[in-house]
Amino acid sequence: MAGNSYFQFKQFVVNQEDCAMKVGTDGVLLGAWFNFPENGTVLDIGTGTGLIALMAAQRGADSVVAVEIDEKAAAQAAANAALSKWKDVITVVHSDIACFSDTDKRFDAVVCNPPFFRDSLRSPDSVRSQARHNDTLSYEKLAEVVNCLLSDDGLFSLVLPYDMADTFISVAAKNGLYLCKRTNVVTRKGNQPKRVLLSLCKQVKVCVTDELVMFDELNNETSEYVYLVRDFYLKY
Q1: Is the model's pLDDT at 135 over the cut of 90?
Q2: CB under 8 Å to 127, separation ≥6 — which residues?
Q3: Which of 6, 57, 204, 220 is deepest in the core (most CB within 10 A)?
């Protein structure tokens, strides 16, 4: 998936040659999974190619603001949005999200496929390293910014490695964001979860927890996984 200069979805094309982080399964899962109210407003933090912003627009968001710190990626996301049928729905902003948080606007949903890697070997490519590591957007800063930008009844959703979920949940709670939905993602039935999809809100609620298995023991896609992504991948 990541090796091509573009990725064709059912209703839009994502060009990605100028983006450090290409289209990947994590982004597709998050874009299909996260919730927002009908005709709601969505903020996509670290949009990269613009994939999740495009998915939100396809799913019926009234407006989507996609923020990206890297200049080339922001330009490519803007171009991808402009080529789509939702060019009037998506606004791409080249900015550090910490600066963007000064706005008075509040969003019904905030979504983020954040930098994953802590204390791991850095890529010699500084742009790719910025996209993959959370030095420039720590969990603490992300939770703080989201608390400022999320509406009182809104949902903040993100995808993380399974072993980092509890750390983020704890940090988020200290910043007034509380877990309300959790989906553990298992690549193949019988294996341990590799990713987790999280939704948090500003009220303390009972958390709904479930599991998504992508492939069965014979490496066939499960019906649950196909149902989730069926509106986006061409093969469905």
Answers
A1: no
A2: 20, 70, 72
A3: 57
